[in-house]
Specification:
alpha/beta; globular
């Protein structure tokens, strides 16, 4: 006797079923043929005219996976991909000192100094992960997925036994994603715009360590969207006052009238991981009675 179908059995086969069933049933299914189903035809999907579809797919893939993985809130960490861990920086300095190039030695010495940001990023991510529910709901660390400060952020979350997300971007010269990202939450993007949108879609706070063009791009995207009220206000923390104030003179911008005096209140400076995490908790304490009570007990 034929087994009865379940009442919720599929009415239509899945796309994967259709692709499997269609192999290879036609002499027209050959290179250069137009016979292949559109969604299974890479040559078609990669056409110039299909860029709007690829943008949509890139936004949708990461969104669906984050939903499936239960990711609702993130603390985003920006910073240089070029900073090294203290151990690696020390090795680089030893190697530089074996040569006679004073420029290489100075660069290596600066890299040793910059290793403090690697330490702070790793410690910050560890703190956030250990207290993942202190803001009233679980949060996870999200980074750009690469080396340097990004590696430190994912590594700190891993040290604490938690998950973290890495949103890598394909670049011809970029290294592979760092090994500390939760595999299910390791993404690769082609479009910078979609990647930056995903950075902010679930962010409850943004913490930026010193960095180069990429870090500045990401930071000013957040500042611009916040200033123009395209996104809600959230803590924006800059770690390393000396670096940021030497790099960007916001007083000059105020003097020339290109920003308002209140715009510098959109962010604030800290020096350590603990200060950054305390600032984020304080920003949400008024809306979180449980957090206020916990802070009072700890004081």
């Amino acid at each position: 006797m034929k087994k009865p179908q379940h009442i919720r059995a599929r009415n239509f086969p899945s796309a994967q079923d259709e692709v499997q069933a269609a192999k290879p049933h036609s002499p027209y299914d050959a290179p250069g043929s137009s016979f292949r189903m559109a969604f299974a035809d890479n040559e078609f999907l990669l056409r110039e005219e299909l860029r709007p579809v690829r943008l949509q797919l890139e936004l949708l893939k990461a969104e669906l996976i984050q939903q499936e993985q239960g990711v609702e809130s993130t603390v985003v960490v920006f910073g240089s991909a070029r900073f090294k861990s203290p151990e690696v920086a020390a090795t680089m300095l030893d190697e530089a000192r074996t040569g006679d190039d004073p420029v290489a030695i100075r660069r290596a010495e600066q890299m040793v100094k910059n290793a403090r940001y690697y330490i702070e990023a790793r410690r910050f991510a560890e703190l956030v992960t250990l207290e993942a529910d202190v803001l009233g709901e679980p949060v996870i660390i999200a980074t750009g997925g690469g080396p340097g400060v990004m590696e430190a952020g994912n590594r700190g979350a891993h040290d604490a036994g938690g998950r973290s997300m890495g949103m890598s971007i394909f670049l011809p010269f970029e290294e592979a994603p760092n090994p500390w990202i939760t595999p299910e939450l390791c993404f690769q993007f082609h479009y910078f715009a979609i990647r930056k949108m995903h950075f902010l879609m679930r962010a409850v706070a943004v913490v930026s360590f010193p960095g180069g063009f990429g870090t500045l791009d990401e930071l000013f995207e957040v500042l611009t969207l916040t200033q123009t009220r395209k996104i809600r206000r959230r803590p924006i923390i800059l770690i390393g006052r000396d670096f940021w104030q030497r790099l960007i003179d916001f007083d000059v911008m105020i003097e020339h009238g290109v920003i308002s005096p209140d715009d510098v209140k959109l962010f604030h400076y800290v020096e350590t991981a603990e200060e950054a995490w305390d600032a984020i908790k304080a920003a949400y304490s008024e809306d979180n009675p449980a957090l206020v009570a916990r802070q009072l007990r700890a004081s």
